[in-house]
Specification:
It is built from one helix and 17 strands. The chain is about 5% helix and about 55% strand. The relative contact order is 0.13. Residues about 1-15 have low confidence and may be disordered. It is elongated. With about 230 residues, it is mainly beta.
C-alpha cells in the first residue's frame, strides 16, 4: 500500500502539479486560420516559468515572451516580437484550456488556447551589446510599389551586456517590435524581424551618423539608409 501511495504521488507531481505547462494552440472566434497562435509554457531547472510564442501558419516559432506571470490558474504575458506587442490575460479552465483575452493598443479580442502536447520552449538568444556609436535611435524609409514606409530602429544596451533592439513602423501603426539577431562587427551591422521575416545588413559611415545597407523581405531586397537622430 505504501509503494502504491508513493507511486501515485510521483505521478501526480510530474503530470498534474503544473497543469499550465504544455504546448497550447489558439484561434480567435470568427477569424480565419491566419490568426492561429501557439504558446509553449514550462518551468526551467530553477523552477522559473518560461515561455515562447509562435504563429504556426507562418512557420514562426520561438518569439520572445515578456512580463510572464503565472499565479494559480492565471497566466499573463506579453509578446514583444508580435505586431503591436499584445498582452494576454488568460485563465486555466480544467487542464486543457486557457481562455481569456488579447489586448493591444487597437483592439481587445477573446481568445482560447487548447493544450495539444508537451511544451517545447524556444528561448530567444540574447544579442551582445553594441558600440556607443550604434546605441540610440535611427530613422529611414523603404520605397515599395505600394508607397514609402518609414522605420525607426532603437538600440539600447542592457546591464547584462546585451542589447535590446526594437523597431517602430509609424505608417503601419506598429511600435516597439523586438528585433533579434542583432550583430555588430566593427562597422558592419545586421538585425532581423522574426514576425515579418525581414532582415537588414548595413555599414556605418566613418562618423557613425549613417548606415547604408539593404532591407530584405519577401524575396525582395531594397536599399535602406538609416540616419542617427
Amino acid at each position: 500500500m505504501r509503494c502504491l501511495k508513493i507511486s501515485l504521488f510521483i505521478a501526480l507531481s510530474a503530470g498534474d502539479a503544473f497543469p499550465q505547462a504544455g504546448h497550447w494552440e489558439a484561434k480567435f472566434p470568427n477569424l480565419d486560420r491566419a490568426f492561429a497562435m501557439s504558446l509553449d509554457l514550462d518551468k526551467n531547472a530553477k523552477s522559473e516559468w518560461i515561455a515562447s510564442f509562435g504563429v504556426p501558419v507562418r512557420k514562426i516559432g520561438g518569439m520572445a515572451v515578456s512580463e510572464l506571470k503565472v499565479d494559480g490558474p492565471s497566466v499573463k504575458f506579453k509578446v514583444s516580437e508580435f505586431f503591436n506587442s499584445p498582452s494576454f490575460d488568460l485563465k486555466l479552465s480544467g487542464e486543457t484550456k486557457l481562455a481569456g483575452k488579447m489586448l493591444s493598443p487597437s483592439a481587445e479580442l477573446p481568445v482560447e488556447f487548447v493544450r495539444t502536447g508537451d511544451a517545447k520552449v524556444e528561448l530567444l538568444a540574447p544579442s551582445p551589446a553594441v558600440s556607443k556609436q550604434l546605441e540610440g535611435d535611427w530613422t529611414g524609409s523603404v520605397d515599395i510599389p505600394q508607397g514609402r514606409f518609414h522605420l525607426i530602429v532603437h538600440f539600447k544596451n542592457q546591464t547584462d551586456k546585451t542589447v535590446l533592439a526594437t523597431m517602430d513602423s509609424p505608417d503601419q501603426g506598429r511600435k516597439d517590435q523586438v528585433l533579434s539577431g542583432v550583430l555588430q562587427l566593427e562597422r558592419a551591422v545586421e538585425f532581423k524581424s522574426k514576425m515579418t521575416g525581414a532582415s537588414y545588413k548595413g555599414t556605418l559611415n566613418k562618423d557613425s551618423t549613417e548606415m547604408t545597407g539593404e532591407w530584405s523581405q519577401g524575396g525582395s531586397t531594397l536599399p535602406l539608409i538609416l540616419k542617427k537622430r
